[in-house]
Amino acid sequence: MTEDSSKKTQVSINERLKILIEALNLSARAFSAVLEVPDSNTRNYLSKGTKLNSDYLESISSHFSHVNLGWLITGQGEMFTGEMPPSTNTATTRIKKVSGGAVHSGTGNQLITLEACQQELEQTKRDLAALQREIELLTGQLQTKDALIASKEETIDLLKAAFNRPN
Q: Quick one: 12 and 89 in the same domain?
């Protein structure tokens, strides 16, 4: 294989990041949460081809010590160094239970309580119900619009017929 053809088949760092996230059994959002970086950073790396910056790579290295950064950067070698952690879902290995039904990210200071999750779920349900009501209202408005258009067309037809008949 020539040097030019090997370059064409080489996977980009952005594609390797996508492969890594899938191998860790995480969504891009969950991956960002574990790294404690904005979700938009990861989405830009995955979809827009933005080059990974050194802070992002450093965060991957510190949160996923079993990831071979050499592979991620160059594509050479194995994706993981040594053995994988006990769980293939690394996000769950980074979350520890603490008192009061809360969980704590292994590297961050953010506490997430069950009550907060339930409140967020209830708010989401209320938002969904409001959106469903809005959809119903808009559907009704569309039906009214269609009826008005049909009535207008009927009126036009009647007027045309009135002008076309002999006196």
A: yes
